Amino acid sequence: MGRVVLGSAVRTCLSNGQWSAPPTCINTCSPPSIPFGSSSISDDINPGQSASFSCNSGYILVGSSTATCQADGSFSALPTCEPACSPPTPVLNATYTPIQPLYRVNSTVSFTCSAGTQLTGNAVITCQANITWTAPPRCLRICEPPSAIMFGSFAPQNSSYNVNATVTYSCVMG
Questions:
Q1: pLDDT reading at 152 higher than 90
Q2: Is 25 exposed, middle or buried (CB count within 10 Å of its CB: 0-12, 13-18, 19+)?
Q3: Which helix (H) or strand (E) holds 59?
Q4: pLDDT per residue over 68-84, tens digit each?
Q5: CATH class of 86-141
Q6: Model confidence over 109-125: pLDDT tens digits?
Q7: Nearest to 118 by CA among 99, 137, 96
Q8: What's domain 2-83's architecture?
Q9: Entry pTM
Q10: Which residues make up the CATH 2.10.70.10 domain(s) of the chain?
């Protein structure tokens, strides 16, 4: 914080024997620093003026992206820069939401498998404090039940089958 003269720094003795209006000293705000980020100003600013903020790569801004210099020489609430997860690794045969450039710690994404696949694992993963994601699911190809044969059946009878699963046919005595 510093101070600057507001108004004319020079006073003049007027013809009426009075001095011209005096200046006032106002507080200024020094460029704020936020860990893992930067501000748009490099010199002191006056009350009412604002600074904007951005975060370094791999960090996400929490709070307002601007702060205003107050009359007391301090800034309104400053944002913080928190570590963030990059988007999760794509999962074959799946999509996820929401899609964002970065994810805050404890945020989640939900995976949906494509038609003809079945989800194995958790559909929802979380950005952890160590800036890694919990284990992603897998979307494995599945087969619909095979066709029936005349005078026969197959086992096991399931609603779907994983790749490499087998069924065994047998003939019905008749």
A1: no
A2: exposed
A3: strand 59-62
A4: 999 898 999 999 999 99
A5: mainly beta
A6: 999 999 989 999 999 99
A7: 137
A8: Ribbon (2.10)
A9: 0.66
A10: 2-83, 86-141
